[in-house]
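so the lab meeting is tmrw and i was supposed to have these ready like two days ago... anyway. pasting both below. for each one the top line is the aa sequence and the line under it is the structure tokens. i havent really looked at them closely yet so no promises
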Amino acid sequence: MTGEPTCPGAPPETRRSPEICMVPEICMVIVQPTGFCNIDCSYCYLPDRTDRHVMAQTTVARLFSEVFRSGWASREIIVLWHAGEPMAAPVSFYREAFAAIERMRPPDVAVKHSFQTNGTLVNIDWCRLFQEWNVGIGVSLDGPQALHDRNRKTRSGRGTFDRTMAGIRCLQQNGVPFHVLSVLSGESLSLPDEMLAFYEQAGIDKVCFNVEESEGSYVSELFTATREEIRTRFAAFLRRFWHRARAGGRVRFVREIDQVLPRVFRPDGMPPRNIQCEPLAMLNVDSRGNVSTFSPELLGMKNADYGDFLLGNININTLDEIHAACLQSALYRDISAGTRACASGCSYFSVCGGGSPVNKLFENGSFTGTATSFCTLTQMVPTDLILEAYDRLEQSWTGTASIAPPLSNASAEAAPLPSRLP
């Protein structure tokens, strides 16, 4: 899963002190009900997407009994059903799982279920489930057919655009809200107007972007360019798309802007938070009960220095044991060192709170590093564009403000902050 594992309506993040972080707060549980995916995207990093194993209901029950028993559950937990294709498991699986979770849920904890799906399996039965349980839906759609079908193919090599759009129309006809997640290739970065026109014509009003990146065994052609070249191209795309979307009013949510805005303009004294850098704040569980934390992409990966990134198995270990194993691990040690390095050396730390550990590992070869192309695109570029727009707005009020240049520390060197950036 590339990109930030968040969706419209996700709870705001605020920084917790290292002392408080010794007592976890579980904010998001990412569940892989099956590793299997019914399609075969060229940029997919998942190693087990041909594995048809489906999580046992006893594993679901054990997982959430531990989450609720621990006392570590946030006031609202997002349960993201993800992996290969979550809808490869049947509707009946989720009816049983959701009911079991609801029976165990403490009255002071809210649970919000979400799916990230390729949309090809959506039908009326799925829509009934989504409506009954108010499930958040993200559909992977890379834009117009030529762009989408280039990478998102069936196992026989055919494009999936028509089937994905049929799923989207089914959601729309049954009143199920959704957002789309689009992976931007080198070609689509040059087509902001065409991308916007496509979403508007399709009646899509909530959009999230991931720039195609290198993860796992997949190497993106985009990353043959320098970090500054990618930054410049994405900034031009996002500026144009955002400004025209706001002017048109039909695309109402652009994740890259709308989820960064409250982090840039947050109340004084509210430091940033990044749940990818906190033990168990993001709890990741595969279909066999194996548990990891921090970046969800680590689940299923292997590395010479860190092994398989697993901290235990929920069918065997308690969350207390899994948390203790995390605190004693080289994984936690090095991710914490990387977060401290970001805090001391990057002027965007107040927005991102430490970056994405998995991207530090894939791009820089170590969790202890700082800036990546991923954080440049997801944190630095949106922050620059928001401050640029604020300066223009301030100038329209006073007639005196100048437009501040973007922060220039793509290599995470310290730089003076504009006064409005906390």
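ok protien two:
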Amino acid sequence: MTRKWKRRRKVWRGIFWLALLGLAALPSVHWANLLLYRKQLQTSQPFLLPLPLAELGDRVVVVSPHPDDETLGCAGLIQRLLQRGITPLVVVFTSGDGFDASIHLKLHEVQISLEDRAKYAEMRRAETTEAMRELGLPPRQIVFLGFSERTLAADWLLKGDAKFVNKLAEWFEKFQPTTVILPSRYDDHPIHAVVCSIGWAALFQLVSEGRLNRMPRVLEFLIHYGEFPRPQGFQPSLELVPPPDLLLTARWYCLPLSPSISRKKWEALKCYRTQQLPLTWRFLKSFVRTNELFAEPLPLTFQPDRKGEPRSLLAGLDIVGVGLEPPSLTRSVSQRHGREDIVVQLRGKASTRFRYGIRVWQPKSHSLLTLVQNSGEERTLTANLPARLSAPAVITAFTAYGNHILDVAPLVLTDGVEHEQR
């Protein structure tokens, strides 16, 4: 037997034993996940409030970042509203044209062209219409804004393009919502966090211009956040549990789903055939549970973001907090005087290879971009604003590599536009 063959046999033997050990460890990982889930469930129970459907009003808008997020986060809510005689409006913000792995597999293309992306976007649009029909929502109640997710984050954060706010504001003004459901500001997916910022900006703009009768109630739904939802996979008998490090950042509401509503949610989810890739599909099925979760964020001037598990292997890309300096939870923003500083906290040291910036949006004012200078050593970056910041305002911190947005952390200052006392 040659030396080369012996070396090759050792390599394959090592691969075999590693695979065997991995298979043997799978049950342990499964049970560890279940134990963590039970601990989180026990911890979160005192913080969960029943969602008061009667207080949402009769005009509810669900803003979905991609075609499928409205089903993942709100399919049960949509059904419960329809049962009460309320027909919500679903606004799908992007065309979902940035999922390259799915485009390669579904269209059997090696090189993706603009025509391929347009065809894929149309497929996702048809899937959403089919899924909403499964839930009982007519097509006329679905609005596809059709923005490209490939350019949305850079156009909003780096260029300050106002078309996103203006277009969403048009639909809000037309529908006059009593409640708006936005993607969560804590979502790991940059597009979800960006759409959250744009949603708040559109509402603030309409209220400041008197184009809304009143500031609607705003709830947020979470999709991407570390190992949320735990345990992942198709677990229809388990509950969705909020991440422990977010329990004190919002009022968390739980909407129980009956078995029939959960089954309909599952049937609607199966309409998204373009998303049925092995790892992606396992994650999506994790949202078929006995409840749905909605968060009503507290009015903070310092917003924590992913204090728990890391989001990226590069710690200098992870934003773990953004706020006004000095951070305060009690002082009214409108009572502050002088120039404002905004601090951005990172999990690790900043890197000169990346860009760190803050987009500040206020109604009746130009959107302001501040690129934060760094020497590659700091964990806390400070941006000096040229003038005093007054609420309402949307501050969106981000990290980028070139024009590619990698992490987004919004801070929403709602002082002065709080919803009427509940």
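from a quick look at the 2nd one: Residues 3-44 form the longest helix (42 residues). The chain is about 35% helix and 25% strand. will dig more after coffe
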